[in-house]
Amino acid sequence: MDDNVNRVNGQQKHRPKLVVIAGVLSLALSVPAFAAGSAGGDAALTEQLKALQTAIKALSAKVDALQKKQTQAPAPSPQATEAAARQAVKDMEQQKARQADAWDSMKPGLSKAQVSALLGQPATRFSLNSNELVWYYTYPGRGSGSVIFGRDGKVTGSQKPPGMTFW
Q: 36 lies in which domain range?
């Protein structure tokens, strides 16, 4: 693997060589010191330059250590990656099943607090007229559903998202 290329999630990410950066900084910092030295010297400027060069060396060493540690980290095995993907799919299916069960539990007379406990907070709330409040739920790729509350704040009706049917 090229030292200047790091693969993250299958994409190439280029990182500059710290040594080159440190060299450029050292050169840039040495020019003012040289100019000051030729004009009679400035001890404070020389000390600042030495402190900056020391800091650059220390930072360079830390970055090198981190890069070495990063390259030594073992890549996940294909089996581990596949197992993680299977678990993610399983978790998503379980979430879908819980959502479908929650919608199946919708019935007239439930309070707003009970609906929130079952379905969570709606994507949108609006008044249908002065007597009814509608909570609208959206599930990407699965559809939308709504819960209608009467003046008393109790469910009067609901429409389950079409994508909540399991076969």
A: 5-72
d(CA 118, CA 69) in angstroms, rounded, equals 46
Q: Dihedrals φ, ψ of 62, to 5°?
A: -65, -45
Contact at 8 Å (CB) between 166 and 96? yes
> CA-to-CA distance for 21 and 58, rounded, in angstroms?
13
The total number of structural domains that make up the chain: 2
CB neighbours of residue 157 within 10 Å: 14
This prediction's pTM: 0.49
Same domain, 63 and 102: no
- The Cα 98–Cα 92 span in angstroms is 10
Whether the predicted pLDDT of 144 surpasses 80: yes
